[in-house]
Amino acid sequence: MGEGMRVTEILIALMSGPQDGALLTFETFLDSGKPAEITFGRREECDVCLSYDSQVSREHAVLTYDGEQFWLEDLRSTNGTYVGEEKITGRTEIAPGQLFRVGRTWLRIEPLPTVLGSEDDLPF
């Protein structure tokens, strides 16, 4: 992220399945001092519920944003979590815009940067 920028929202785009094209927005709440976490799974309690995908575990994966980097972690799912075509083990760094797969569902992270300071500080 550029200097003077911070992510206040994270946009998750569903890239396949019956919800193809859906965009889900999550606030980061980084001011709380805790990293933002987005959970993926079949359970309704997950932030991104993929109940239609039989290849997704109840609690499949978690995406974490610590204010600087995004991390994707498989939660010992049955069918694995993939960044591109590579199956991940443990916590793996993932870049915004990079495709990842949970079960049969492809997703993409798109952070929405917010400029720090007031609108009066904008150069245009």
Structure description:
With 124 residues, the chain is mainly beta. It has strands at 5-14, 23-27, 36-41, 48-49, 61-65, 70-74, 81-83, 86-87, 91-94, 99-102, 105-115. The strands form two sheets. A six-stranded antiparallel β-sheet has the order 2-1-11-10-7-8, with no helix packed on it. It starts with a strand and ends in a 9-residue tail after the last strand. The model has no long low-confidence stretch (mean pLDDT 88).
Annotation keywords:
124 residues; mainly beta; 6-stranded antiparallel sheet; globular
Task: Present the secondary structure layout.
Layout: E1 5-14, E2 23-27, E3 36-41, E4 48-49, E5 61-65, E6 70-74, E7 81-83, E8 86-87, E9 91-94, E10 99-102, E11 105-115
Parallel strand pairs: 3-4
Antiparallel strand pairs: 1-2, 1-11, 3-5, 5-6, 6-9, 7-8, 7-10, 10-11
Q: Helical amount among residues, as a percent range? A: under 10%
Query: Average pLDDT across residues?
Result: 88
Q: Tell me the β content.
A: over 45%
Shape label: globular
Quaternary state reads: single chain
Following the backbone from N to C, one meets helices and strands in this order, namely EEEEEEEEEEE
**Biggest sheet descriptor:** 6 strands, antiparallel
Q: Count of DSSP E strands?
A: 11
- Poorly predicted tracts of residues: none
If strands are numbered along the chain, what order do they take across the biggest sheet?
A: 2-1-11-10-7-8
Through-space gap between termini: 21 Å
Computed over alpha carbons, the radius of gyration is 15 Å
Q: Helix count?
A: 0
